[in-house]
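Reading a protein record of the kind used here takes little practice once its layout is understood. The reader may check this reading against the record printed directly beneath this paragraph.
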Amino acid sequence: MDDDLNSRLIPLRERIDALDAQLIALLNQRAAVALEVGEVKKHFNAPVFRPEREMQVIARLQEMSEGPLADDHISSIWREIMAASRALEKTLRAAYLGPVGTYSEQAMVEYFGHSIEGVPCPSIDEVFRSVEAGAAEFGVVPVENSAEGAVSRSLDLFLQTSLVIGGELALPIHHNLLTVSGTLNGVTRVFAHPQALAQCQHWLTANAPTLARQAVSSNAEAARLAVGDPTIAAIAGDRAATHYGLGVVSAMIQDDPHNRTRFVMIGKERTGVSGYDQTSLIVSVANEPGALLKLLEPLARHGVSMTRFESRPARVGTWEYYFYIDVEGHREDAAVAAALKELGEKAEFLKILGSYPRAR
């Protein structure tokens, strides 16, 4: 049987080896051209990372592909190819909510590729500060979860910052219950980020009702603490389990099997038109009858679709709010530009957070 198996596999492996030789030669040629692009960008002081261009490259290849590779496979492969090319030009840094092993770190790697240099931060505030101060070119922050809604601190910080949104990623959230031993023997407490505790509350009530629940700054911090204390269980993802060497008591314990968190990438550079964009903004209106309707009317009249609407207390005055709105299209698109111009004339306050490629 082994001889028959090898006789069939050997010629196929030889074909793969030959194709790999062609691929590595072509990839090096591509990298050499990317370096030439980098020199041109350097001459004109243009940014190394252009998310709209990378999205266009991936979308074009997905349309060209006839299989068997799926769109997700093509996206993953070319994101790493382009990340490696960027790293030849310059090592880019991205700040994220740490420590190592958080979903924010995972979102950073999935968006920028493994060639990005991560800068773990103790809080979302510090992520913003790091990018503003130049310690990192980009930041990765969560803005909303499909089960628990908006991440309030991120939204509040967007009011104060000069940074803009340059991209987004919707990350599936798979929570695991982790301990040093891989069992619940001797465990009395479960640690996690407050949102993770909320996202797993029904599972915990049904399967671990005696465990005291304690909120910490991140799920990765919970995993780090669990390493040194066998009485602690942590809720965290696969990345944290691997990094901290914890055993999985139970996997996929989130109450919503389709749980996702939306992350946005922040930086100092505006993102150009990709053809598949959205624009995020913050507005406030005078506290008077019909004010909100008047504010939204220009969007409808110019055919601009609103995909998200979130209100937050303004914390000044009484019953006054800021509205966080996402609309389809780029701020440079004619219809969006016209609608935003009218919004600016009617709103008490308007801040455009950025136009960027939508998560596909």
